[in-house]
Design goal:
Blueprint: E1 2-7, H1 9-15, E2 19-23, H2 30-40, E3 52-55, E4 58-60, E5 72-75
Parallel strand pairs: 1-5
Antiparallel strand pairs: 1-2, 3-4, 3-5
Length: 81
Amino acid sequence: MKLTIKCFAVVADVVGGSEAELDLVDCGTVNDLKQALVGRYPDLERLSSALLFAVNGEYAVGGCVLRESDEVACIPPVSGG
């Protein structure tokens, strides 16, 4: 299945834009997506343990099964002060 992932901040810098498209096996999970992103964009490896994902506007755990129609966002670590 083809997924479009919305990317923000440093993730957008690494992937070269505000969206990334990936092909993922049917019944792929958020963990599968994270592995595919790091495989395609190795510079994300240093952030991988801190990346969060939202599916259809809700934070998603690693085992969440994705569907092609899902809206997916990759959220990098955020800090402020």
